[in-house]
Write the structure tokens for this entry.
Amino acid sequence: MNKHVPSTQELRERYVKAAHGGILSECLAIIEQVAGPAAVALIASALRGPDEQTECAQNLKWEYTALLRRSVGFVDGVRDPLPIFNSAKVRKVVLKLEELRDLSEKEGGRDTAMYHYVTHIWGGLREFYNFLVVLDDRIAAGGAQ
Amino acid sequence: MIETVPGQEWTQKWEQFTRDAKYGELRKCLTLIGEVSGDQVLANIVAALRGPDVQLPLAQLYKARYVRRLRASVGYIYGDSIWPMLSSGETVEVIQRAMEDLVKVKVDIRLGIADEQGAVAYAEVHALSHILSGLQAFHDFQLRMKSWMALEQPVKATP
């Protein structure tokens, strides 16, 4: 008997369902399947908010970390934003973070807590973006996973 | 004759887990942790895998002492010389040490020994709190594995 190989569309739907359901392990497993183990490591490293407890850092947490958390099934509470599975929208966030990273480097250098945080969240969201793009491309090509 | 539970499923899973950790199979390790302890425990572990944001020597010492140990224990790194925490007792020792560091930072804040505005110290508290949550979550996983493996050990000896 042939084993059913899920199509990329089915895989994407499974992913979205797992993220909405807060099933982190399932989301990470699908990310690894599609984008590889390095993507999982970078995303895992980005899931903690900034250590700095300033208002500025905490605002960044709700803008970026919460978004990534929610989009990979890491449910953190009622203040979480809605997840984003649209690669174009995630790309915009990644680009905003690149600007923020450059600004942070210019203002404080690389040995600052802010630069460290922004670098990690940028890396995590960039990997998440890559994952979505691979899914989109495969679905557009109409192939199986 | 000694009767054992057939298959010894959890013992085999634990052995596979330690191999996966050694060879940097992060996702495989995380999947088993999620399966055994649930996704909230898993979330605490992944949130602890980043080192402290503060780039000062003390915070980096915490990274070397705790974050790298946790990373090595769940397959985050490839070929690192840091030892993984293979037993729950070992993890408890690391937890106790991290707790002592956390208490010290908190006392420094209370006594005003920490930096003027406390910003660095509070960041250290945040980092250490995450590290501790991660270590305790990993300990939870180890204990569950241990108890399930114990059920598979020889249950009785008959003449």
